[in-house]
Amino acid sequence: KAGVTQTPRYLIKTRGQQVTLSCSPISGHRSVSWYQQTPGQGLQFLFEYFSETQRNKGNFPGRFSGRQFSNSRSEMNVSTLELGDSALYLCASSFFDRPDYGYTFGSGTRLTVV
Amino acid sequence: KQEVTQIPAALSVPEGENLVLNCSFTDSAIYNLQWFRQDPGKGLTSLLLIQSSQREQTSGRLNASLDKSSGRSTLYIAASQPGDSATYLCAVRPGLTGGGNKLTFGTGTQLKVEL
After folding, report:
1. A5 has pLDDT over 70
2. For position A90, what pLDDT does the model report?
């Protein structure tokens, strides 16, 4: 079966611009979570979506936002990009009401802000 | 606040050696713990998922144990191979009473298996 699909794989943006990343979960998974990975901070939770609603939010500024569509696909948006937003952004899918199930991650989107 | 630590941060071993990676967490109120592997610049590949009620899980040459009361998990890799070279991450999922579905990740152990 298809895994978690993230697009694009790589992005280069300029400071001040905005960016949108996309994540398609495994078929049947309706929970999508987003994580940021940097060398200094490691993996940090951004937010989780289920049933088109944000269920959990990490400690990130309001420039980071997301949404989920009725087909469970999710997008995250970062506005007014800063150099420090350069990171690998990972998406994970799971069953929201099956905490025993575990998460499946995508290959990530590498964002470079110049 | 949950904190997850992995020791050692880096490890280099000759091929064929058995090795143990450690993961410790400060809050024992977890639902489960998941071990992942990450190759450079890539996403996370799930290796083993161990529920809080379980003591261990095995998959091929990998064995993960969990001691929830002491806040520790170990990942045992038998007969290591160069293809095992990667960063290994553990992540804990909070119990039903707090934290939602947010995973807290450890700092990772970078493993290099040499010929």
Report:
1. yes
2. 98
Q: With H, G, I as helix, E, B as strand and everything else as coil, classify residue A83.
A: helix
Contacts of B66 in chain A (CB under 8 A): none
Calculate Rg over the CA atoms of chain A.
13
Task: Indicate the residue of A33, A42, A106 with minimum beta-carbon distance to B101.
Answer: A33
Q: Does B59 touch chain A (CB under 8 A)?
A: no
CA angle, residues B36, B15, A40, in degrees to nearest 5: 40
Task: Judge: A102–B49 Cβ closer than 8 Å, yes or no.
Answer: yes
pLDDT for the residue B97: 63
Cross-chain residue pair A88–B41, CB shorter than 8 Å: yes
Mean pLDDT to the nearest integer, A75-80: 98
Residue B57 is predicted with a pLDDT of 96
Mean pLDDT over residues B91-102, rounded?
77
d(CA B64, CA A36): 26
The three-class DSSP label of residue B52 is: coil
